[in-house]
Amino acid sequence: MTGETMRSADGNREADRKILEIFRQVHGGIVSGETLSKALGVSRTAVWKHIRSLRNLGYQVEAVPARGYRLVGSPDILTPAEISAGLRVERIGSRLVCLRETESTNAVAYRLADEGAAEGTVVIADSQTRGKGRLGRTWESPGGVNLYGSVILRPAIPPHHASQLTFLSALAVAEAIELTTALTPAIKWPNDVLVNGFKVAGTLNEMSAETERVDFIILGIGVNINMRREQFPADLRYPATSLAIESGHEVERVRFIRTFLEALDRLYSRYLSCGYAPLREAWLSRSIVMGRQVRVAVGDCVVRGVVTGVDEIGALLLRTAEGRSERILAGDVIVED
User: What is d(CA 204, CA 154) in angstroms, rounded to the nearest whole number?
Assistant: First the structure.
């Protein structure tokens, strides 16, 4: 694709985004072709071409003779124009890259970050062929039902503080669930989001850093939104579910993603201005493991104890039956009581 073609495609996407935003501002009302023409700075013929483009994407745009156009329905598709319409963020989502299918959004985001992509760039895919989970596992990623995304961050922090940001994405997912459903989420260390005891989301951070500073961090997020029971693999290590299964109805993916990005943007801004302490307190308030007896599989070993908190880099703190203090950096947690 030539540079001129890329600029043309970007211009068309921006025009589509502006048209959708204008339609949503009138809440189903009619917008004249003249209004759209002036807002975009293009001819009425060009406006008609953009309307046709939106229809080709699945938007239901009604032409009202002698009056203009009205948006009467939107598809549940993941496009920059759809997600950014009405999105209110400072950093996260300032640039959106939406893909029909990719091996892994983390891999795409890592490459873009390595090439200099700006902080706040978000990569979202409708499906993944090799989605990444923790500890080298795969993340099942069927198309058309879930959120698979990765966010590029460039915080001015030392590398040993990067693990603090694991809590950031888990908290943002929990907030988005509360704001878009009637469900009550909980967080299991370090990064699993649960509903009714079943896993609905997980996160995976990857980092590029020098000795004393972080170059960039990739926050990978997977949320089971509308996944059906038959789409889950039979060999899952832990019970999983989706927001649709637990709520009894489908959840609009675009609305959920928009809400998640806004929550992540707020939490990240607070982290940059106030540090880790507020993030840790918010995580502890949602934690399903605090004060409970757990066992943690760490490689071939199992450690048992009562969770007493998390430390300044997010490590899990336990008190064993013998009274020893244990500090866990990575492992699988099972609540025993």
Answer: 16
pLDDT of 211 reads: 82
DSSP state at residue 228: -
The residue length of the chain stands at 337
Q: Token digits for 108?
A: 């795409």
pTM, to two decimals: 0.81
Which ranges of 228-252 does DSSP label H, i.e. alpha helix? 243-247
Give buried/exposed letters for 200-229 (b at 16+ CB in 10 A, else e).
bbbbbbbeeeeeeebebbbbbbbbbbbbee
Instruction: Say how far apart CA 203 and CA 223 lie, in whole Å.
Output: 9
232 or 116, higher pLDDT: 116
8 Å CB contact between 326 and 306:
no
Nearest to 127 by CA among 150, 109, 106, 145: 145
Half-sphere exposure in the Cβ direction for 202 (13 Å, CA): 18
